[in-house]
């Protein structure tokens, strides 16, 4: 109990509040909610070093949200169909696909970003407000020599 009496001094209380504010500020800028869940699977195709990439995005909110999905440019990855960037209204779960060919061992990174729902989600749909929320997922691609 005598050790807690130090906190009754105004200077100690002020220092404690400052430390708490500093620690909270560092974490307060992050969105603690997990708005989206990303699951990426990379499956080999029949031809050597060709893969099908399937990204499943699950909306963890009770409101629909417009999500822009893109892959990071990578010199070791060639897109067989198209290097597509998708924008979709996700209310529950959506799947996105790419067919790629790898020329060397590399990593594929996919980004999902919440964007304005205007023109993407149907009018009258309860939508999540625009935010700066973004989530990425990265997987290694192993190619055979």
Automatic annotation (TrEMBL):
Highest taxon of source: Eukaryota
Entry keyword Signal: yes
Signal peptide coordinates: 1-28
Keywords: Signal
Pfam families per record: SVA
Keyword Transferase applies: no
Subunit structure: Monomer. Interacts with AZGP1.
Family in the record: Belongs to the PIP family.
Entry protein name: Prolactin-induced protein
Organism: Microtus ochrogaster (Prairie vole)
